[in-house]
Structure formats: C-alpha cells, structure tokens
Amino acid sequence: MKRLIGKTALVTGGAQGIGFEGAKLFAAEGARVVIADINAERGKAASSEIGAEFVRCDVSNAADVEAAVKAAGTVDVLYNNAGIFWVGHDGRITDVSEADWDRVIAVNLKSVYLFSKFAILAMMASGRGGSIINTGSSAAQIGIPDCDAYTATKGAIVQLTKSLAVEYGRYGIRTNCISPAAIMTPMMRQSNPENSTFDEERFLKLRTPLRRYGTPEEIAKVALFLASDESSYLNGATIVADGGITVNGDLSKIDTDA
Ligand SMILES: NC(=O)c1ccc[n+]([C@@H]2O[C@H](COP(=O)([O-])OP(=O)(O)OC[C@H]3O[C@@H](n4cnc5c(N)ncnc54)[C@H](O)[C@@H]3O)[C@@H](O)[C@H]2O)c1
Questions:
Q1: Which residues contact 108 (CB under 8 A, 6 or more apart)?
Q2: How deeply is 84 buried, as exposed, middle or buried, from its count of CB atoms within 10 A (0-12, 13-18, 19+)?
C-alpha cells in the first residue's frame, strides 16, 4: 500500500540515521521527498540513493530554512528530525560554555521554530493541511545526566508540539512528536558504544527492557504512521519509541539471565 502518494515530505537531517530511514520509507510509500541537511556530500548521496531531492541547509539558519521550504514548494509533511548530541561540548550545566549551549539550542530547537514557521505558512497557503513530526528523546521524558542543553531542547520540543497542535489544528495541520532512545545511528554510536566510559553490557541488561538497541527502520515506521492519514486523529501526541527505557524502574529486580 502506498500511503503518501501525491504528498511532498520535507525531512531535516535526512542524510543519515533516523532521518535517512524515514526519508527512504516516505519515498517508498510514494512521497516526493526533499532532504535538508548540513552535510552536502552525504546528503546528495543519500538523496540519489532513494530518489529524493537535496537542499543543503543549516537548520539553525533562517535564510537557509526559508530557502529549503521554498525549494520544496508544497509541504504536506515536515519531519523535524535534525539534531545534535554534542559529545565533548554539552554536559552538566556548570560545565557547558555559553557558546556551546547556544549552538545546541539553535540546532535542536530554533530549527523547529524556523522550519515549523515557514512550513506552516506554506501549508496554510495550500489549504491542504499537513503533518508535522517533531523529534524528542528519552531526555524529554526522564532526567539524563551530562547533556543539559540537549535535554532542554528536547523537553521544549515535546511542549511546543502541543501548542502547535492546538493553534493550527483548525487548518488541518497535525503536529506530533516521536521520542526515541537507543536507536543505532552514527549519533548513538558516538555517544554510547564509542564512548570509553560507556558500559554496553550494563546498559542493555539494566536499562533496556527489550535487551537490544532499536533500529532507524523501527522509528521510520512510526514516522510513516504520523505522516500518513492513518494517524488522522492524532494531534499533539508524543509517541515514545524507546523499547521501554523510560518506563523502566529497576531491571536489576528481574532475572537478567532469563
Ligand atoms: N539515535 C538515538 O538513539 C536518538 C535518541 C533520541 C533522540 N534522537 C533524535 O533523533 C534525531 C536523529 O538522530 P540520529 O541518531 O539519526 O542522528 P545522526 O547524528 O545520526 O543524524 C543527524 C543528521 O542531522 C544532520 N544535522 C546535524 N546538524 C545539522 C544542522 N545544523 N543543519 C542540518 N542538518 C544537521 C546531520 O548531518 C545528520 O545527517 C535527532 O534529533 C536526535 O536528537 C536520536
């Protein structure tokens, strides 16, 4: 079944990871896909692999974002996926420099303001409504140490999802959010398995009820649901897609060898 025929989907940060798999599935479901990413080399290669269009864009830059939305023309689906988890820069609030704090806020949160603003204007002008998919994190659901700027952006995104849902629902524009965790992507590899202080065995046994990482394909299926008319009465929702990580109290009480 082709669920996105006749629709244009704009995917930020679609050059790799979760965004790439989302863009790929949207294209397979019949959408015209436009990838907006700061990495031109990877973005062009990713786009040609799945038959998408590419626009180089720093999501924190207003002129870039306006140009990207203009290049897309009609926007039926906006997938606000781009983000950074800035290992070595972000951290505990007493350690983060003002410049690094500002950069994380700009890339992760200002980007959602900018893209949503220009895309909503385009959606309202088209009269076709639309679906906006934001990206939260387990950091928006629970307190995770040592990434305070990231946490602040993700919590804000979950809340902004709700106000956009309330404000623009009457135009047929639905805004929802996906909060993933432990999805195996370049970002995840850098922040966890490639980090020398990370204890993978402990993480999978004690933090992760499904005892495995998630895949970007698993998040892409949630994004497709939100992009398509199958989720036509979802507005303001956050779908937590984390294998149960954020509802886990204490896995040490469970037989970890079973
Ligand atoms: N992987 C996970 O487990 C996980 C967990 C929670 C939330 N998330 C969120 O999911 C989203 C995607 O994560 P991922 O794991 O695929 O990350 P990733 O680092 O693998 O990919 C991110 C993409 O965003 C692009 N990007 C970064 N800064 C940009 C900028 N300024 N302008 C334009 N593009 C930019 C990168 O070039 C890259 O293509 C992010 O918002 C992330 O915070 C991921």
A1: 83, 84, 149, 150, 153, 154, 157
A2: buried
Does residue 184 surpass a pLDDT of 70?
yes
User: Which residues, at least 6 apart from 88, have a Cβ–Cβ distance to it below 8 Å?
Assistant: none
- Give residue 170 CA to ligand 1 midpoint distance, Å: 30
Nearest to 83 by CA among 193, 196, 219, 198: 219
188 CB less than 6 Å from ligand 1?
yes
Identity of the amino acid at 85: F
Strands 77-79 and 130-135: what pairing? parallel
- DSSP bridge pairs for 238: 177
Annotated catalytic residue 150: yes
All domains in the chain, ordered by first residue: 8-239 (3.40.50.720)
Q: What is the pLDDT of residues 134-160, one digit of tens each?
A: 999 999 999 999 999 999 999 999 999
For a substitution probing ligand 1, which of 187, 190, 238 has the most ligand atoms within 8 Å of its CB? 187
Partners of 224 in the β-ladder: none
